[in-house]
């Protein structure tokens, strides 16, 4: 062990596991310990400081931060923080944990670096960063009608360690995460948004975070969840989440409730929450409703084969005419099997293929998109197609991307080829930069029946940065139908 000489300042050094034993075998509660060599570093965190510790190696390894030295190599209880986000390999990967010492006294902690096998280098680079903490704000540890208030603008540090799993709803309510089936700790804050203002809430952690915003607190600690509580936005992309919520009232403030949650008992720890609030800018697009008018693809249509499947997307391809999207010129499109069309000027790569949808706008990827029916779709049926074709003559052409015969991923029958019955199209109009979404056929099918009206989908448009958009619906029953097409006019 290296526990005799404490690390007391920010630094970056190389270390090796060669010559060290396997003192912490097995997975102890909440830690990330394995069956190969391990090494301990003692770190002193000054009062009111934050520790960020990172290790980089080609070996598959994990980090555990404990509060006391396991000098007798005894089983550890209760980790302060842990990290095991990536598998080792080439190139090297990095694991990062963070811990806040909000007390008035320095604190000694012990960082355990542990390998999961013998592949990869035994060497690793350890980087220690010690910085002054932002303002501390503890979330409500129990369901409460008056949770702590977040600043309208600013950053606070918080911690979900030791909290209970009070919010027991899952993503059937329109929120993100599977809190109902896990015991992940959760916490809640209140945020008051001034009239005619938009608040963007960003949470940053070193663990798999889930961020949701709802319109009222749950004073029953889960027993009443799902009745009269609406999800205003949610994000579940990893350790950094962003949700934007608007108060469209011109006269009254609006209080919303920000929920921090995770996926498992290991998902907890320090988190920074940043709120940026500003007056709602004029919309870049106006949304209206028009009559459905689906195009029939001809023999000359392009079959977008790489967008046919489960969680796949086509590479960026050239648009047939000049087009401006949110005031910026775009020249390429990419189609996701999950009901998205991406617009950009890229020539390599594709739009992200996330099956888990988010509210609009959200800076987390994917961005620069048209969400026709963003959901966990599946186009493995032999009759499923994704096509693209330009209709009309210049300078009044329309470019149409269409999904035909696709359905929802059915977890009860993974890989099922049960006939799917969803057909919808995205249209781009030359010269006007108008975007339309048409729903040609939306029929229920099997275990996924009911989702065809938008109960688990995002519908709308978003700019390249994810900072502006027009959301038609987010996980809303009967938000789409085969009578009304959506038209977005700049």
Count of helical segments? 0
Low-confidence stretches: 222-226
Strand content: over 45%
Radius of gyration: 25 Å
- Ends distance: 63 Å
Structural class: mainly beta
Can you give the mean pLDDT? 84
Residue share in helices? under 10%
Q: What order do the helices and strands follow?
A: EEEEEEEEEEEEEEEEEEEEEEEEEEEEEE
Beta strand count: 30
Main sheet characteristics: 8 strands, antiparallel
Categorize the overall geometry. globular
Protein described:
The chain has strands at about 1-5, 10-15, 40-45, 50-55, 60-65, 80-85, 95-100, 105-115, 125-130, 135, 155-160, 185-195, 195-215, 230-245, 255-260, 270-280, 285-290, 300-305, 315-325, 330-335, 340-345, 370-375, 375-380, 385-390, 400-410, 420-430, 435-440, 460, 470-475, 485-490. The strands form five sheets. Strands 17, 18, 23, 24, 25, 26, 27 and 30 form an eight-stranded antiparallel beta sheet that branches. Strands 10, 11, 12, 13, 14, 15 and 16 form a seven-stranded mixed beta sheet that branches. Strands 19-20-21-22-28-29 form a six-stranded antiparallel beta sheet, with no helix packed on it. It is mostly beta strands and about 500 residues long. It starts with a strand and ends with a strand. The chain contains no helices and 30 strands. The radius of gyration is 25 Å and the shape is globular. Residues about 220-225 have low confidence and may be disordered.
């Amino acid at each position: 062990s290296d526990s005799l000489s404490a690390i007391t300042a920010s630094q970056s050094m190389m270390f090796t596991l060669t010559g060290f034993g396997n003192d912490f075998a097995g997975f102890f509660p909440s830690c990330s310990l394995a069956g190969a060599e391990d090494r301990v570093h003692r770190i002193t965190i000054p009062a009111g400081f934050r520790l960020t510790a990172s290790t980089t190696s080609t070996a598959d390894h994990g980090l555990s931060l404990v509060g006391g030295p396991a000098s007798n190599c005894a089983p550890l209880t209760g980790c302060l923080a842990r990290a095991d986000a990536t598998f080792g390999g080439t190139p090297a990967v990095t694991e990062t944990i963070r811990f806040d010492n909000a007390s008035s006294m320095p604190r000694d902690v012990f960082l355990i670096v542990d390998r999961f096998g013998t592949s990869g280098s035994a060497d690793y680079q350890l980087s220690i960063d010690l910085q002054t903490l932002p303002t501390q704000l503890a979330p409500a540890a129990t369901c409460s009608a008056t949770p702590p208030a977040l600043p309208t603008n600013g950053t606070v540090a918080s911690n979900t360690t030791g909290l209970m799993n009070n919010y027991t709803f899952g993503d059937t309510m329109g929120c993100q995460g599977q809190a109902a089936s896990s015991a992940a700790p959760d916490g809640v804050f209140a945020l008051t948004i001034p009239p005619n203002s938009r608040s963007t809430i960003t949470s940053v952690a070193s663990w798999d975070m889930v961020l949701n915003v709802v319109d009222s607190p749950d004073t029953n600690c889960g027993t009443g969840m799902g009745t009269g509580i609406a999800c205003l936005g949610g994000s579940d992309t990893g350790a950094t989440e962003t949700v934007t919520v608007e108060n469209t009232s011109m006269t009254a403030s609006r209080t919303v409730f920000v929920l921090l949650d995770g996926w498992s008992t290991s998902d907890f720890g320090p988190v920074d929450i940043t709120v940026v609030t500003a007056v709602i800018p004029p919309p870049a697009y106006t949304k209206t409703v028009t009559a459905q008018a689906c195009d029939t693809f001809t023999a000359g249509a392009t079959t977008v084969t790489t967008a046919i499947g489960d969680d796949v997307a086509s590479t960026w391809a050239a648009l047939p005419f000049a087009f401006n999207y949110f005031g910026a010129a775009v020249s390429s499109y990419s189609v996701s099997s999950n009901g998205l069309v991406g617009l950009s000027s890229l020539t390599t790569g594709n739009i992200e293929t996330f099956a888990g949808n988010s509210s609009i706008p959200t800076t987390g990827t994917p961005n620069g998109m048209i969400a026709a029916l963003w959901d966990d779709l599946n186009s493995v049926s032999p009759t499923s197609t994704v096509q693209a074709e330009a209709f009309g003559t210049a300078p009044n052409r329309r470019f149409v991307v269409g999904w035909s015969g696709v359905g929802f991923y059915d977890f009860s029958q993974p890989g099922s080829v049960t006939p799917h019955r969803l057909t919808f199209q995205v249209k781009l109009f030359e010269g006007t930069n108008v975007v339309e979404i048409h729903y040609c056929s939306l029929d229920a099918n099997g275990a996924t029946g009911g989702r065809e009206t938008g109960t688990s989908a995002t519908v709308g448009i978003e700019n390249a940065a994810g900072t502006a958009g027009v959301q038609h619906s987010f996980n809303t029953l009967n938000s789409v139908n085969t009578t009304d097409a959506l038209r977005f006019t700049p």
